[in-house]
Amino acid sequence: MIDVLLIVIGVYFAIGVLFAFVLAAGPIKTIDTVVADSPLRFRLVAIPGMAALWPIMANKLRAAKKVGRES
């Protein structure tokens, strides 16, 4: 049972790290316009938080793209 839990947690964080690096590379600018002017160092510091909270960031990105298509 504990093995399954550890695998699920590992997969969650693996997806989160991949998503965070992709998000930091560019699409984060659609979520927050302030980040567009920030240096790369800031985005690198934010990667652990984005990796841990990737489902929330994915919802924010989806909502930002939805608003962008409507306007």
Could you name the key traits of this structure?
single chain; about 70 residues; mainly alpha; 5 helices; flat
Number of domains: 1
Poorly predicted runs: none
Rounded average pLDDT: 89
Indicate the percent of residues in helices: over 70%
Q: What share of residues are in beta strands?
A: under 5%
Give me the count of strands: 0
Radius of gyration: 14 Å
Biggest beta sheet summary:
none
Q: What series of H and E elements makes up the topology? A: HHHHH
Rough outline: flat
Q: Which structural class fits the helix and strand makeup?
A: mainly alpha
Q: Terminal Cα separation, in Å?
A: 49 Å
Q: Number of DSSP helices? A: 5
What can you see in these coordinates?
This protein is mainly α. The protein has one domain (2-70). 87% of the residues lie in helices and 0% in strands. It is built from five helices and no strands. It has helices at residues 2-25, 28-31, 33-36, 40-52, 54-70. The longest helix has 24 residues, at 2-25. The protein is flat, with a radius of gyration of 14 Å. The mean pLDDT is 89.
Summarize the structure.
With 71 residues, this protein is an all-alpha fold.
List the helices and strands and how they pair.
Elements: H1 2-25, H2 28-31, H3 33-36, H4 40-52, H5 54-70
